[in-house]
Design goal:
The chain is α/β, with parallel strands linked by helices. About 45% of the residues lie in helices and about 15% in strands. A five-stranded parallel beta sheet has the order 4-3-5-6-7, with helices on both faces. The protein has a five-stranded parallel beta sheet with strand order 9-8-10-11-12, with helices on both faces.
Length: about 375
């Protein structure tokens, strides 16, 4: 496929995320009716109302989307969600069965361990829904229902636009479940849909403002060999995926960690030689988000007292974080559950520019393939 004037597919696909979000979300929602339509789910509403638990199974970046989806579903539907590594699922005798739903997530729809996990779940009596970016893939054909992400073909091995589309479709599914199960009122659904429909434009805003900052950071930090990425709650999976992107394309060791867990070990590592990338956005309309933000600010102060170098992802206009961190990249305001879609974009860009700065093969990192068809 043509790179469309971009030097690499990865950068092209990062910039295609707004359109991928539009294609994934817009056909499935009616703002006027305050309604989500997911015709391909193909599971009767009575069965969805009877669900006792949801299991999400995936690998790599798709698992990080699943972890964010766990927060979305539990918050909007009040239904317990468990997230598993696909490669470990069948080895732990998963205690699942009827009355449960297993969501399997894979960009290609052909991932070997995720397909095996889906078959294991079905054998135990669980209904399954596949989230895939490839129409009529194996995992989609074998599922009871399917949620396609319409991000378009993804050529670069490091997944970018498929990830944000997965986050969007998981949010849609959470709203749909809330709609079917009666946990969300029509006016609340309409509010969530309005916020979701605003995401493509906000993503374009990030893509206009963030690249120069990310490129400068890569120029400054390209020789560093270790990074610590931090986030709380729904932002923790985004920290994990930011770290994974850096590992995949830049061959730099990076670890994603829950911010509150740093005092249980990783604090010992933080000094002037270990940059800390912390997600410190804030949704002022969400009391829990504000409390987490205040803790993040206190954490940044502590890291600076330890001579740490801090790169922060913050909400537009946040002067408090700007004054504390060494570097701050801003994203537009968004609700707590949707801001991860904006936060991952500068982390993708940073990983990309780090790889470019190091002269690496961005689209085809060593020892990796796009679709893991053999364990």
């Amino acid at each position: 496929m043509d790179k469309g004037g971009f030097p690499h597919y990865m950068l092209k696909e990062i910039f295609e995320q707004p359109q991928g979000l539009r294609n994934t979300v817009t056909p499935r929602v009616s703002l006027e009716r305050g309604q989500v339509r997911l015709d391909d789910v193909r599971i009767h509403e009575d069965d969805l109302r009877a669900l006792q638990r949801i299991n999400i199974v995936a690998s790599g970046t798709s698992r990080h989307a699943g972890l964010a989806g766990q927060f979305m579903i539990q918050e909007l539907v009040n239904l317990p969600v468990e997230v598993d590594y696909a490669s470990e699922f069948e080895y732990r005798n998963p205690l699942i069965g009827k009355g449960e739903l297993t969501i399997v997530i894979t960009q290609s729809g052909e991932t070997a361990d995720t397909t095996a996990a889906q078959r294991e779940a079905k054998a135990k009596g669980s209904r399954t829904i596949a989230i895939s970016n490839v129409i009529d893939s194996t995992i989609a054909r074998e599922a009871d229902g399917v949620l396609y992400t319409y991000a378009g073909p993804e050529i670069s091995i490091a997944s970018t636009k498929a990830f944000t589309a997965q986050l969007a479709v998981l949010y849609l599914f959470a709203i749909y479940l809330g709609q079917v199960r009666g946990t969300l009122r029509e006016d609340t659904i309409r509010k969530h849909l309005r916020q979701l429909l605003e995401l493509p434009q906000k993503t374009e805003t990030v893509l206009q403002s963030a690249p120069p900052s990310c490129e400068r950071l890569a120029e400054q930090y390209h020789s560093v060999q270790d990074f610590l990425y931090l986030g709380r709650a729904v932002h923790y999976p985004i920290a994990m995926d930011g770290a994974l992107k850096l590992k995949e394309v830049s061959y730099v060791h990076a670890e994603g960690y829950p911010t509150g867990e740093t005092k249980h070990g990783p604090n010992a590592l933080i000094d002037e030689s270990l940059p800390v990338v912390i997600i410190a956005t804030c949704d002022p309309s969400d009391e829990a988000a504000v409390r987490r933000y205040e803790k993040n600010v206190a954490n940044i102060r502590n890291f600076k007292e330890q001579s740490g170098r801090v790169v922060a992802i913050a909400t537009d206009g946040d002067e408090q974080v700007r004054n504390l961190a060494d570097h701050t990249i801003f994203v537009p305001p968004a609700s707590e559950l949707l801001s991860p879609i904006l936060e991952i974009v500068p982390l993708q860009l940073f990983a990309y520019y780090m790889a470019v700065e190091k002269g690496l093969d961005v689209d085809r990192p060593r020892n990796l393939v796009k679709s893991v068809t053999l364990e």
